[in-house]
From TrEMBL:
Protein name: 3-oxoadipate CoA-transferase
Family: Belongs to the 3-oxoacid CoA-transferase subunit A family.
Superkingdom classification of source: Bacteria
Coiled coil (UniProt feature): none
PANTHER family, A to Z: ACETATE COA-TRANSFERASE SUBUNIT ALPHA, KETOACID-COENZYME A TRANSFERASE
Keywords of this entry: Transferase
Organism: Nocardioides aromaticivorans
InterPro entries: 3-oxoacid_CoA-transf_A, CoA_trans_fam_I, CoA_transf_BS, NagB/RpiA_transferase-like
Amino acid sequence: MSRTQLMETADAAVAGIEDGSTVLVGGFGLAGMPFDLIDALIRQGAKDLTVVANNAGNGEVGLAALLKAGRVRKVICSFPRQVDSYVFDELYLAGKLELEVVPQGNLAERMRAAGAGIGAFYCPTAVGTPLAEGKEVREIDGRTYLLEYPIKGDYALISAHAADGMGNLVYRKTARNFGPVMATAAATTIAQVSQIVPTGSLDPEAVVTPSIYVDRVVAVEARHYTVQGAR
């Protein structure tokens, strides 16, 4: 029997997220962004959050809306600035937001390490750059590496295409992005999906995130946004 809870609303799905939590937020830009869960988190009111994501928001929707609401203390991401990241830009330049930049591959691997129970790993990315400051350096087989530690989340908010009644998830194309590794790296994983189908109707070979990594699922109507450019 699955432990995954099927929730009636996005608000119910994010209930209980505490102030000061570390929240892993799926999405590659707008692709795979869990818009409904983020909007519900804004209504829920949790603040002083540390958000881990690929970027720091687009326009004023999704993650950018959470930043604009003043709920985030720190962002850990790979690409904080882009043509429509003006919400992040203004908060960061005003000293209202902390930033930790992590190379994209390292970001994915550090979350994967958390899910796999790996205590730390050595990686050559960022050697010789400002991102190497303060990190342990080691030479292995003639190459220089940096010691990297896992990134764990108290919660993960992710978007998938569909779930079955047990909470097994399948994704659609690039919307898959960071969802699978985030699901394994969080203590509580919350997924929004376009539909919940009967248990047994998903091809087991197509399931990317097994239900054991999923705590709550809510079905919402799919939303699509396009990048509008800078203000």
